[in-house]
Amino acid sequence: MIDPARIRNFAIIAHIDHGKSTLADRLIEACGGLEKRQMQAQVLDSMEIERERGITIKAQTVRLEYKARDGKTYVLNLMDTPGHVDFAYEVSRSLAACEGSLLVVDATQGVEAQTLANAYKAIESNHEIVPVLNKIDLPAADADRTKAQIDEVIGLDASDAVPISAKTGMGVPEVLEALVTRLPPPKGDAAAPLKALLIDSWYDAYLGVVVLFRVFDGVIRKGMRVRMMEGGSVHQIDRLGVFTPKMVMQDELGPGEVGFLTASIKEVAETKIGDTLTDERRPAAAPLPGFQPSVPVVFCGLFPTDAANFADLRESLGKLRLNDASFQFEPETSAALGFGFRCGFLGLLHLEIIRERLVREFDLDLIATAPSVIYRVALRTGKEVEVHNPVDMPDPTVIERIDEPWIEATIMVPDGYLGQVLKLCEEKRGEQVNLTYTGNRVMVVYRLPLNEVVFDFYDRLKSASRGYASFDYHVIEYRPGDLVKLTIMVNGEPVDALAAIVHRGRAEQRGRQLCERLKDLIPRQLFRIAIQAAIGGRVIARETVSAMRKDVLAKCYGGDVSRKRKLLEKQKAGKKRMRQVGNVDIPQEAFLAALKMGEE
Amino acid sequence: MPDVPLGRRAAPAVSEAPAGGFGVYVHWPFCASKCPYCDFNSHVRESVDQAAWHRALLAEIDHFAARYFAPEARPEVGSIFFGGGTPSRMAPETVAAVIARIGARFPLAPDVEITLEANPTSTEAAKLRAFRAAGVNRLSLGVQALNDAALRFLGRQHDAREALQALDLARRVFTRVSLDLIYAYPGQSAASWRDELARALELGLDHLSLYQLTIEENTGFHGAVRRGAFTPMDDDRQADLYELTQEITAAAGLPAYEISNHARPGEACRHNLVYWRTGAYLGLGPGAHGRIAAGGERLASQQVRSPEAWAAQVAREGHGTLSVTPLGATEVAQEFLMMGLRLAEGVDLARLRALAGDAAVLDPQALSRLRAAGFLALTDERLTVTPAGRPLLNRLLAELLL
Fold this sequence. Notes:
heterodimer, A: 33 strands, globular, B: 2 domains, 19 strands
C-alpha cells in the first residue's frame, strides 16, 4: 500500500491529434515503465483502429514511478481518455478517478472544440488543471497566442503552462515535476470500508473480464469477495494488479490507487461502469456517486452484402459487444437488404469504428443504412413510443407529435471560414447560442437537431472549413419537430432500406435527390421502372428508368455456344447479387451509393 | 439441291441422324487482313502451306470418324460449312478433298448443303467456279455493306462496286447465295440503312444475314472505343434499327428465322440450323468447336486455337483436339434454350424435357412473368420468343434460366 501523499492520479485531455498519446508514451518512457526497445509508438492505443486513427476508444491506465526533484518517489497513475466527441461519457468517468488533468493543446493549432469540451469536463470534476503547450518545437507554434486562447476561451490561467515537444521529449521532465507539485494527492481513509469506483471493464480472451477501478476508501485485497453495490453481484478476486503498462500483480491496493482485478466474471455486462465495489464482509454504507449508463443515440441497420454471411455478422457483433457495452444490436429484416441487425451507437464516429472493425477484423462486407436518431412519438391515444428505425414510424394519422433530440454543438473555426460554417448551421435548422472571437479563431455555439447532424453535417463542416473546423456536441433536449417519413418506392413498392425521417422543409429536395440518384444507379430492365419519393400517400418526386430495348447477341453459332453459356452464367450470377424490390432488380451498389448520398 | 452430283460410292452404313441434324464445320483461319470488328479465330499470314493444311484437315476427318463413330453407325451428314477466316482463300483442291473425305467417312445426305464463306474481292471471285466444281453448293458472301464509306470504316478490302460484281458472278455460279451485312454502326441513319437494305433486297436473294455491329473484346474497334475514337450507337437507336429491319425484311418476304438471319421459306441455312436446334456437329480446324453425340452423352470438343500449334499437333498426333468434355444435362438444356430461342420457331418442349431429365432448368415464375409481358409465347408443344422479346433475348435468358 502506498501513502496517498505519494500518489498523483491524472488524466491527459486534448483535442484529437494534439499529442495526447505521444505525451503519454514519453511519460511512460521517462519513468522507465517500458524500456525504449519495448516502446511501440503509442502503447496506450492498443487497438489497430485506435492506433491508425489516432483515437483512443477504451480508457487505459498506467502506473508510473517517478523520482521527483524533492528526492521522493511518487506513483503517478495516468488515465488515458478517449479523444472523440462520441466518447464524451467515457472521458467523464475516467476523469472521476483522478484529481487533476494535463490539458494538452497543440501550440500550432490552438484551442479546438474538444479541448474546450474536455477542459470543461475536467473543471466539472473539480480537477486541478495543468495546461501543456505541445509541438512547441515546430516553427508554426505560437505559445503566447495559445496561452491567450486558453485564458480567453476556457477561462483557465495559462501563464505557467508547460511548453513541451512530446515528439522530441523536450519539456517532459517539467511536466512530471508539475504533476507532483501542482496536482493534489488523493484523499481517502484506509481504515474505512472499501469503496472503489469501477472505471472500465473489458473482455480478455485469456483472463476473462478485466475490471479497472480506483480505490477511494479502504483497501482491496487479493482473494477478497467484493460486491458490486448497484449490480448486486459478488465476486471473489483472483487477480489483483496494476498496469505499468505491463500487468504487475499486487496483494493489496489502498486509497488513491488505481488497479485491475479479475474475478471469474463471464460477461462485461455484469460489470456496470460507475458502480462501486465494496467488501462483502464489511460493506460501505453508501456507494460513490455513479454514472448514468451511456446510451446509444445513433442507429443504423447493418446487413451483410452476401446473405450467407449473416451468421458471421451476428457472431462478430457479439464479439465486439463483449468489449463495448455501449454498442447495441438486435436482428432486423429488410425486404430490400435481407437479414441484418439494427445497431445502436454513441455517435457517428462510434458507428464508423464498429463498421470498420467488422470489415477489417472480421472480414465482412456490409451495407449500412442511413443513420437515424431516436424520435419520441406522441400518439393520438396519449401513448408515447420511441422510434429509431424509419420503417417503424407510425402512420401520420395516428401521430400527435414527434419530438427529436437536439444537441448543443461547439465549433472552433478560423474566422476565414466562419461564413461558410454559419451558413451550414443555419441550413441545418440551427439556432445560434454564442459566437466568440479569440484572435483569428471563432468559437461558435449552436443548437441543432441531431437528425441533421447525423445526415451529412461532419462532412459538410469539413469541406466548408477545409478541415480546419473542430466540433464537439452533447445532447441537450428533445423538441417537437415538423418531421415526416420520406418513403422511396420502386414500381410502387416501398424500399424499406431507403426510408428516412426528415424535416418537412427538406423532404422534397431530399426525395428528389434520391430519385435522381437511383435513376442513374438502377440499370434498365425489361420493364419501365418508376422511382418515386412520397410523404404519406403524396408523391413528391418521380423519375423513370425506361425499359431496356436491346440485349441480344448478334451472332451465335457453333463456336460461340460454350463461351456464351459462360457469359450467361456470369449474367445470372450478377443477377443473384441484386436485391429484388417488387419485380425490380436493384444492384447493391445502388443502395450503397444512395445511402452514401448524404456523405458527398 | 446440290449443284454437283456427289459420288455415292462405298457409302458407309447410315445410322439415324441425331435430333437437330448433323453437320461438319471446317475452319480456315487465314485472312488477307484482320477486320477491326472481327473477334473470330482469324490470322494474317504471309504464306500458307496449302499442302500441309490439306493433309491436316483430312487427318482430322479420319480421326473424328474413327474415334467417335463405329463404322456401322455413322450419321448422315446434312451439311458442311467452310468458315473462317476466309475460306475462299483455300485452294479449291483442298475444299474438294475435304468434301470427298467427309463423304468417304460418313454418308452424305442426297441434298447435302455445302456452304463456303467468301470475300467479294475479284481475286476470290475468280475461284468461284472451282469451288463449285469442288462440291460447294451454297455461297455466303461477306459483303458487309453496300456503300464505300461504311466498307472503309469496317476495314474491308473491297468496295461496293467490286462486291456487286462478285455477287453477280456468284449468282451465276451458285443457285444459293447469301449475303452478310453489318448495320447499326456509329452515325448510321435510319434513312441510309433503309436505303441500303432496300438495295440488298432488290437483288432478290433468298437469304440475308443482317448483323448489328457489336464491339467485341480484343478487336480493333474495342481499342478504338476505349481510346474514344468513336462511340458505339446507343442501344435505343440500335433497337429502332432492329425493328425497322424486321419490318422491311418481312414485307419483302424474307422474315427473320433467327435473330440476325432472314430467308425465304425453305431457304434457311441448314448448317446453322444444326447449331440452333442443338444438333450434332464436328468442328475441324484450329479453334473449331464441336458437339458430338456419343455413347448417350453429348461431348463438347474444342481444337487447338493457334493455327501453327494446331497444325503441329495434327502432324504429331493425328488430330488437333485440345479438349473433349461431356456436358451435363443442365448444360445441354441451357444450350438448347440459349440457341433454340434465337429461332422464330422456338424450342420443342418435349425435347427440352428429354434433354434436361430431372434437372430444373426454367424458372416458372420468370416464365409466367415474361409471358404476361408479351416476351414469350408458350403452347403445349413449343416455347418461343415473340418478336418483341427477340432483341432482349440475353436478358430473357438470364431471367428464365435457373
